[in-house]
Amino acid sequence: MSSFPDVRLRRFRRTGSLRGLVRETRLDLQSFVMPLFVAPEPLVDEALPAMSRFTVDGLLREVEGLVRLGVSAVILFGIPEEKDEQATGAWEDDGIVQRALRALRPEFPELVLLTDVCLCEYTSHGHCGVIVDGEVHNDQSLELLARTAVSHAEAGADVVAPSDMMDGRVAAIREALDDRDFESMPILAYSAKYASAFYGPFREAAGSAPAFGDRRGYQMDPANAREALRECELDLEEGADAIMIKPALPYLDVIRAAREAFDVPIGAYNVSGEYAMVKAAARSGWLDERQAALESLTAIKRAGADLVLSYWTKDLASWVGSSPVPGTG
Protein backbone atom coordinates (compact mmCIF):
# COMPACT_ATOMS: atom_id res chain seq x y z
CA MET A 1 0.00 0.00 0.00
CA SER A 2 1.06 3.55 -0.63
CA SER A 3 1.96 5.67 2.34
CA PHE A 4 3.27 9.14 3.05
CA PRO A 5 3.78 11.32 1.08
CA ASP A 6 1.17 9.83 -1.27
CA VAL A 7 -1.31 9.25 1.59
CA ARG A 8 -2.09 12.36 3.60
CA LEU A 9 -5.09 12.02 5.95
CA ARG A 10 -4.98 15.72 6.67
CA ARG A 11 -6.33 16.47 3.19
CA PHE A 12 -9.94 16.09 4.35
CA ARG A 13 -9.26 17.99 7.58
CA ARG A 14 -8.26 21.24 5.90
CA THR A 15 -11.63 23.06 6.15
CA GLY A 16 -14.86 22.69 8.03
CA SER A 17 -16.73 21.81 4.86
CA LEU A 18 -14.28 19.05 3.99
CA ARG A 19 -14.40 17.65 7.52
CA GLY A 20 -18.19 17.65 7.39
CA LEU A 21 -18.19 15.84 4.08
CA VAL A 22 -16.48 12.74 5.51
CA ARG A 23 -17.70 12.89 9.11
CA GLU A 24 -18.60 9.41 10.37
CA THR A 25 -20.87 10.28 13.33
CA ARG A 26 -23.53 12.98 13.30
CA LEU A 27 -25.91 14.24 15.94
CA ASP A 28 -29.57 14.22 14.91
CA LEU A 29 -31.92 15.94 17.34
CA GLN A 30 -34.63 13.38 16.58
CA SER A 31 -32.60 10.70 18.34
CA PHE A 32 -32.39 12.67 21.62
CA VAL A 33 -34.79 12.54 24.56
CA MET A 34 -35.16 15.32 27.13
CA PRO A 35 -35.69 14.20 30.76
CA LEU A 36 -38.26 16.29 32.66
CA PHE A 37 -39.30 16.31 36.31
CA VAL A 38 -42.93 16.96 37.23
CA ALA A 39 -43.96 17.70 40.82
CA PRO A 40 -46.70 19.37 42.86
CA GLU A 41 -44.49 22.44 43.41
CA PRO A 42 -41.90 23.98 41.07
CA LEU A 43 -38.25 24.07 42.01
CA VAL A 44 -35.75 25.97 39.88
CA ASP A 45 -32.17 24.70 39.84
CA GLU A 46 -30.06 27.63 38.72
CA ALA A 47 -26.81 25.67 38.70
CA LEU A 48 -28.27 22.74 36.73
CA PRO A 49 -31.28 24.14 34.85
CA ALA A 50 -32.26 20.81 33.32
CA MET A 51 -32.74 19.36 36.80
CA SER A 52 -35.53 21.81 37.67
CA ARG A 53 -38.98 20.58 38.69
CA PHE A 54 -42.16 21.69 36.93
CA THR A 55 -45.79 21.63 37.94
CA VAL A 56 -48.14 20.17 35.34
CA ASP A 57 -48.95 23.68 34.09
CA GLY A 58 -45.29 24.61 34.06
CA LEU A 59 -44.47 21.40 32.23
CA LEU A 60 -46.92 22.32 29.47
CA ARG A 61 -45.13 25.63 28.98
CA GLU A 62 -41.70 24.00 29.06
CA VAL A 63 -42.70 21.34 26.53
CA GLU A 64 -44.20 23.97 24.26
CA GLY A 65 -40.79 25.63 24.13
CA LEU A 66 -39.03 22.33 23.55
CA VAL A 67 -41.31 21.43 20.68
CA ARG A 68 -40.78 24.85 19.15
CA LEU A 69 -37.02 24.17 19.25
CA GLY A 70 -37.49 20.84 17.48
CA VAL A 71 -37.28 18.39 20.39
CA SER A 72 -39.36 15.34 19.45
CA ALA A 73 -39.25 13.20 22.62
CA VAL A 74 -39.29 13.64 26.40
CA ILE A 75 -39.18 11.22 29.33
CA LEU A 76 -41.13 12.02 32.49
CA PHE A 77 -40.07 11.49 36.09
CA GLY A 78 -42.57 12.18 38.86
CA ILE A 79 -42.24 13.49 42.40
CA PRO A 80 -45.49 12.77 44.28
CA GLU A 81 -47.17 14.79 46.98
CA GLU A 82 -46.82 11.90 49.42
CA LYS A 83 -44.71 8.74 49.56
CA ASP A 84 -45.49 5.38 51.11
CA GLU A 85 -44.10 1.86 51.27
CA GLN A 86 -46.27 0.66 48.37
CA ALA A 87 -45.27 3.50 46.00
CA THR A 88 -48.95 4.37 45.52
CA GLY A 89 -48.12 7.56 43.66
CA ALA A 90 -46.39 5.57 40.94
CA TRP A 91 -49.44 3.63 39.81
CA GLU A 92 -52.58 5.44 40.96
CA ASP A 93 -54.80 6.93 38.26
CA ASP A 94 -54.34 10.44 39.64
CA GLY A 95 -50.57 10.19 40.05
CA ILE A 96 -48.40 13.13 39.06
CA VAL A 97 -47.03 11.49 35.90
CA GLN A 98 -50.49 10.27 34.90
CA ARG A 99 -51.86 13.83 35.23
CA ALA A 100 -48.94 15.17 33.22
CA LEU A 101 -49.50 12.63 30.45
CA ARG A 102 -53.20 13.48 30.21
CA ALA A 103 -52.33 17.17 29.96
CA LEU A 104 -49.56 16.73 27.39
CA ARG A 105 -51.14 14.16 25.10
CA PRO A 106 -53.86 16.30 23.48
CA GLU A 107 -51.65 19.39 23.31
CA PHE A 108 -48.67 17.69 21.64
CA PRO A 109 -49.97 14.73 19.63
CA GLU A 110 -46.72 14.28 17.68
CA LEU A 111 -44.42 14.42 20.71
CA VAL A 112 -43.05 11.05 21.83
CA LEU A 113 -43.88 10.66 25.53
CA LEU A 114 -41.68 8.18 27.38
CA THR A 115 -42.13 7.42 31.06
CA ASP A 116 -39.71 6.10 33.62
CA VAL A 117 -41.23 3.05 35.31
CA CYS A 118 -39.69 2.75 38.75
CA LEU A 119 -40.78 3.05 42.36
CA CYS A 120 -37.88 4.89 43.99
CA GLU A 121 -39.35 8.39 43.65
CA TYR A 122 -42.59 7.17 45.24
CA THR A 123 -41.49 4.94 48.12
CA SER A 124 -41.00 6.32 51.61
CA HIS A 125 -37.72 4.38 51.85
CA GLY A 126 -36.37 5.46 48.44
CA HIS A 127 -35.69 1.98 47.08
CA CYS A 128 -36.89 0.69 43.71
CA GLY A 129 -39.10 -2.08 45.07
CA VAL A 130 -41.07 -3.43 48.00
CA ILE A 131 -39.13 -3.92 51.24
CA VAL A 132 -39.52 -7.25 53.05
CA ASP A 133 -37.40 -7.96 56.14
CA GLY A 134 -35.07 -5.10 55.29
CA GLU A 135 -34.42 -6.23 51.70
CA VAL A 136 -35.87 -5.24 48.34
CA HIS A 137 -38.13 -8.17 47.46
CA ASN A 138 -37.83 -8.85 43.74
CA ASP A 139 -41.03 -10.78 43.01
CA GLN A 140 -43.36 -8.70 45.17
CA SER A 141 -42.13 -5.60 43.34
CA LEU A 142 -43.11 -6.90 39.90
CA GLU A 143 -46.86 -6.40 40.36
CA LEU A 144 -46.44 -2.74 41.31
CA LEU A 145 -44.09 -2.11 38.41
CA ALA A 146 -46.55 -3.71 36.00
CA ARG A 147 -49.41 -1.64 37.44
CA THR A 148 -47.32 1.50 36.99
CA ALA A 149 -46.58 0.72 33.35
CA VAL A 150 -50.24 0.02 32.59
CA SER A 151 -51.32 3.26 34.28
CA HIS A 152 -48.85 5.20 32.13
CA ALA A 153 -50.12 3.52 28.98
CA GLU A 154 -53.71 4.33 29.90
CA ALA A 155 -52.78 7.98 30.52
CA GLY A 156 -51.20 8.42 27.08
CA ALA A 157 -47.56 7.29 27.17
CA ASP A 158 -45.95 6.20 23.91
CA VAL A 159 -43.11 4.19 25.48
CA VAL A 160 -42.64 2.77 28.98
CA ALA A 161 -39.10 2.44 30.30
CA PRO A 162 -38.60 0.23 33.37
CA SER A 163 -35.48 1.29 35.27
CA ASP A 164 -35.76 -0.68 38.51
CA MET A 165 -33.47 -3.64 37.62
CA MET A 166 -35.74 -6.27 39.19
CA ASP A 167 -35.34 -9.69 37.58
CA GLY A 168 -38.32 -10.55 35.38
CA ARG A 169 -39.86 -7.10 35.32
CA VAL A 170 -39.92 -6.84 31.51
CA ALA A 171 -41.93 -10.08 31.24
CA ALA A 172 -44.33 -8.90 33.98
CA ILE A 173 -44.84 -5.54 32.28
CA ARG A 174 -45.25 -7.09 28.82
CA GLU A 175 -47.88 -9.49 30.09
CA ALA A 176 -49.77 -6.77 31.95
CA LEU A 177 -49.75 -4.45 28.94
CA ASP A 178 -50.93 -7.18 26.59
CA ASP A 179 -53.71 -8.18 28.97
CA ARG A 180 -54.99 -4.57 28.84
CA ASP A 181 -54.86 -4.40 25.02
CA PHE A 182 -51.60 -2.44 24.88
CA GLU A 183 -49.83 -4.97 22.65
CA SER A 184 -48.40 -2.10 20.59
CA MET A 185 -46.81 -0.31 23.55
CA PRO A 186 -42.99 -0.47 23.24
CA ILE A 187 -40.82 -1.27 26.24
CA LEU A 188 -37.46 0.47 26.45
CA ALA A 189 -35.72 -1.50 29.19
CA TYR A 190 -32.94 -0.04 31.31
CA SER A 191 -31.20 -3.37 30.78
CA ALA A 192 -27.73 -2.51 32.06
CA LYS A 193 -28.19 0.05 34.82
CA TYR A 194 -25.10 0.28 36.96
CA ALA A 195 -24.82 1.13 40.65
CA SER A 196 -23.09 4.35 39.74
CA ALA A 197 -21.70 7.38 41.55
CA PHE A 198 -22.98 9.57 38.70
CA TYR A 199 -26.63 9.71 39.82
CA GLY A 200 -26.26 12.29 42.59
CA PRO A 201 -27.92 15.34 41.01
CA PHE A 202 -30.81 13.21 39.75
CA ARG A 203 -31.49 11.78 43.18
CA GLU A 204 -31.59 15.28 44.62
CA ALA A 205 -33.92 16.53 41.87
CA ALA A 206 -36.21 13.50 42.13
CA GLY A 207 -35.98 13.14 45.90
CA SER A 208 -35.14 9.47 45.42
CA ALA A 209 -32.06 8.82 47.52
CA PRO A 210 -32.47 5.57 49.53
CA ALA A 211 -33.20 6.10 53.22
CA PHE A 212 -30.95 3.19 54.15
CA GLY A 213 -28.34 1.05 52.46
CA ASP A 214 -27.71 1.38 48.75
CA ARG A 215 -28.86 -0.15 45.45
CA ARG A 216 -25.94 -2.47 44.80
CA GLY A 217 -28.14 -5.47 45.54
CA TYR A 218 -30.10 -4.92 42.33
CA GLN A 219 -28.21 -2.45 40.15
CA MET A 220 -25.16 -3.75 38.31
CA ASP A 221 -21.57 -3.90 39.55
CA PRO A 222 -19.56 -1.28 37.60
CA ALA A 223 -16.79 -3.85 37.08
CA ASN A 224 -18.96 -6.17 34.96
CA ALA A 225 -19.43 -5.98 31.20
CA ARG A 226 -20.28 -9.57 30.22
CA GLU A 227 -23.08 -9.57 32.77
CA ALA A 228 -24.53 -6.50 31.05
CA LEU A 229 -24.92 -8.48 27.85
CA ARG A 230 -26.71 -11.23 29.77
CA GLU A 231 -29.09 -8.62 31.20
CA CYS A 232 -29.75 -7.25 27.70
CA GLU A 233 -30.35 -10.71 26.28
CA LEU A 234 -32.77 -11.68 29.06
CA ASP A 235 -34.75 -8.45 28.67
CA LEU A 236 -35.08 -9.01 24.94
CA GLU A 237 -36.23 -12.58 25.52
CA GLU A 238 -38.85 -11.27 27.96
CA GLY A 239 -40.25 -8.85 25.39
CA ALA A 240 -38.21 -5.64 25.49
CA ASP A 241 -38.33 -3.75 22.20
CA ALA A 242 -35.22 -1.70 22.92
CA ILE A 243 -32.49 -1.77 25.55
CA MET A 244 -30.58 0.95 27.36
CA ILE A 245 -27.22 1.37 29.06
CA LYS A 246 -26.97 3.73 32.04
CA PRO A 247 -24.76 5.71 32.63
CA ALA A 248 -23.36 6.41 29.19
CA LEU A 249 -19.88 7.95 29.25
CA PRO A 250 -18.24 5.61 31.82
CA TYR A 251 -19.75 2.63 29.96
CA LEU A 252 -19.03 3.36 26.30
CA ASP A 253 -17.45 -0.08 26.05
CA VAL A 254 -20.73 -1.65 27.17
CA ILE A 255 -22.68 0.37 24.60
CA ARG A 256 -20.27 -0.82 21.91
CA ALA A 257 -20.50 -4.44 23.07
CA ALA A 258 -24.30 -4.29 23.06
CA ARG A 259 -24.29 -2.70 19.61
CA GLU A 260 -22.20 -5.57 18.26
CA ALA A 261 -24.27 -8.25 20.00
CA PHE A 262 -27.86 -7.12 19.38
CA ASP A 263 -29.66 -5.87 16.29
CA VAL A 264 -32.23 -3.80 18.20
CA PRO A 265 -32.51 -0.11 19.07
CA ILE A 266 -30.00 0.75 21.79
CA GLY A 267 -30.38 3.70 24.12
CA ALA A 268 -27.89 5.35 26.42
CA TYR A 269 -28.58 7.64 29.37
CA ASN A 270 -26.20 10.59 29.57
CA VAL A 271 -26.87 10.93 33.29
CA SER A 272 -27.04 13.86 35.69
CA GLY A 273 -23.52 13.45 37.03
CA GLU A 274 -22.05 13.58 33.53
CA TYR A 275 -24.05 16.74 32.86
CA ALA A 276 -23.14 18.30 36.21
CA MET A 277 -19.39 17.68 35.85
CA VAL A 278 -19.23 19.58 32.58
CA LYS A 279 -21.42 22.36 33.95
CA ALA A 280 -19.17 22.75 37.00
CA ALA A 281 -15.98 22.70 34.96
CA ALA A 282 -17.41 25.27 32.54
CA ARG A 283 -18.35 27.59 35.43
CA SER A 284 -14.73 27.39 36.60
CA GLY A 285 -13.51 28.29 33.13
CA TRP A 286 -11.75 24.96 32.66
CA LEU A 287 -13.54 24.01 29.46
CA ASP A 288 -16.14 25.19 26.98
CA GLU A 289 -19.51 23.64 27.85
CA ARG A 290 -20.87 23.57 24.32
CA GLN A 291 -17.82 21.91 22.83
CA ALA A 292 -17.47 19.44 25.73
CA ALA A 293 -21.15 18.54 25.58
CA LEU A 294 -21.13 18.01 21.83
CA GLU A 295 -17.98 15.92 22.06
CA SER A 296 -19.51 13.82 24.84
CA LEU A 297 -22.75 13.25 22.93
CA THR A 298 -20.83 12.39 19.78
CA ALA A 299 -18.84 9.79 21.74
CA ILE A 300 -22.06 8.16 22.94
CA LYS A 301 -23.45 8.01 19.42
CA ARG A 302 -20.11 6.81 18.05
CA ALA A 303 -20.11 3.96 20.54
CA GLY A 304 -23.34 2.71 19.00
CA ALA A 305 -26.32 4.33 20.73
CA ASP A 306 -29.36 4.92 18.54
CA LEU A 307 -31.13 7.17 21.02
CA VAL A 308 -29.70 9.23 23.86
CA LEU A 309 -31.42 10.53 26.97
CA SER A 310 -29.57 13.70 27.83
CA TYR A 311 -30.07 16.83 29.93
CA TRP A 312 -28.36 18.70 27.08
CA THR A 313 -31.20 17.94 24.66
CA LYS A 314 -32.73 21.40 25.01
CA ASP A 315 -29.33 23.04 24.61
CA LEU A 316 -28.54 20.77 21.68
CA ALA A 317 -31.71 21.97 19.98
CA SER A 318 -30.66 25.59 20.25
CA TRP A 319 -27.04 24.81 19.35
CA VAL A 320 -27.63 22.82 16.22
CA GLY A 321 -31.31 22.77 15.26
CA SER A 322 -33.04 19.67 13.98
CA SER A 323 -30.70 18.79 11.08
CA PRO A 324 -28.02 16.10 11.36
CA VAL A 325 -24.92 17.95 12.50
CA PRO A 326 -21.29 17.35 13.37
CA GLY A 327 -20.29 16.62 16.91
CA THR A 328 -17.73 19.35 17.50
CA GLY A 329 -17.83 21.62 14.47
Main attributes of the structure:
single chain, about 325 residues, alpha/beta, TIM Barrel, nine-stranded parallel sheet, two-stranded antiparallel sheet, 12 helices, disordered C terminus
Could you please describe the fold and organization of this structure?
By secondary structure, this protein is α/β, with parallel strands linked by helices. It has one domain: Alpha-Beta Barrel (TIM Barrel). Helices cover 40% and strands 17% of the residues. Strands 2, 3, 4, 5, 8, 9, 10, 11 and 12 form a 9-stranded parallel sheet that branches. The protein is globular.
Structure summarized in a few sentences:
The chain is α/β, with parallel strands linked by helices. Helices cover 40% and strands 17% of the residues.
Mean pLDDT: 93
CATH architecture heading: Alpha-Beta Barrel
Number of separate strands? 13
**Could you spell the SSE succession in H and E letters?**
HEEEHEHHEEEHEHEHHEHEHHEHE
Distance between the termini: 32 Å
Stretches where pLDDT is under 50 for at least 5 consecutive residues are 322-329
Spell out the CATH superfamily.
Aldolase class I
Question: Could you say which overall geometry the principal axes of the C-alpha atoms support?
Answer: globular
Which CATH class is shown? Answer: Alpha Beta
Rg over alpha carbons: 20 Å
| SS element count, helices | 12
Helix fraction by DSSP (H/I, runs of at least 4): 25-40%
